[in-house]
Fold:
Amino acid sequence: MNCIDSVNGRTRIFGIIGNPIEHSFSPILQNTIAKEMGHNHIYVPFCVEKGKVGVAIEGAYRLGIEGFNVTVPHKMEVINSLYEIDTLAEQIGAVNTLKKTDKGYKGYNTDILGLDMCFKTRNIQIEGKTVVILGSGGAAHSAVILAANRGANEIYVVNRTIENAVKITNIVKKYYDTPVFAVGYDKLNDLHKADIVIQTTSVGMGESADNSPVKDCSFLNNTEAVVDIIYTPWETKFIKDSKKAGCIACNGFDMLIFQGIASYEIWNDIKIDNTTANNIKERLTEYYMGNG
Ligand code: ATR
Structure:
């Protein structure tokens, strides 16, 4: 493929804003989806300084850029530049997708939709289940709102710093009646149930690649499914321990792909069928395994 046959006067422009942005997988992901769908789109990375999101968005709107993904550190700051915000994004307090409307950009959070798809594609119901969330950073916000919104029976937020876990439980309490508890890792094996576990900490990647946030995984004995949001390494220690315990285990790559597909669906007002979504996922997994 070259520019002559891929970009012309009718090309619709999308992008991602973040800082840093050069390692983002989203340009590859979104341009692959557009190619698979046969759409005349291009998706490019934009490095935007903290504190400059407002002017960047204003300019982007004037330029007619149709949609954005938003990544670290702008997912909260960007909310001030929106014309409207989707309900789930508002509850999470973070936006990762902007869609151009006649009056400004509307903000969504597709991280939560991507996480939801990790369960849906494996026929795992959240409704009625005990959901355990490890960590209380940005990703835990999406996990906790997903669990409450999809009708979990109860939610445990487990964290090293208990005050941060309490902050997350307070967000749930603001919007939902779901019983939600903040606990330390020392209480994990006392939980009476942990049907679904979502690992949202950074432990298991980078310098802590040989580590897991959980030392003793006996609490996983009756767990149905585990999602670890990390995908580098492909299998964290926690994912390996979950598999040993007999759980269905999913790394963060599915969530990454599905959040991208969900953004694409919002921008184009379409639903991508499961076969196409799986083709996209397979192509990108192959690419990632070869280059990641
Ligand atoms: P995010 O990118 O999701 O916002 P973050 O703010 O870096 O990530 O949050 C990381 C999460 O990983 C936090 O819950 C953090 O626990 P604290 O609130 O106690 O800081 C957790 N985390 C980081 N290092 C950890 C470690 N060594 N053991 C346990 N939890 C850890």
Residues 135-139, 159-161, 164, 200-203, 213 surround 2'-monophosphoadenosine-5'-diphosphate (CB under 6 Å). The chain has a mean pLDDT of 96. Residues 14 and 43 are 5 Å apart (CA to CA).
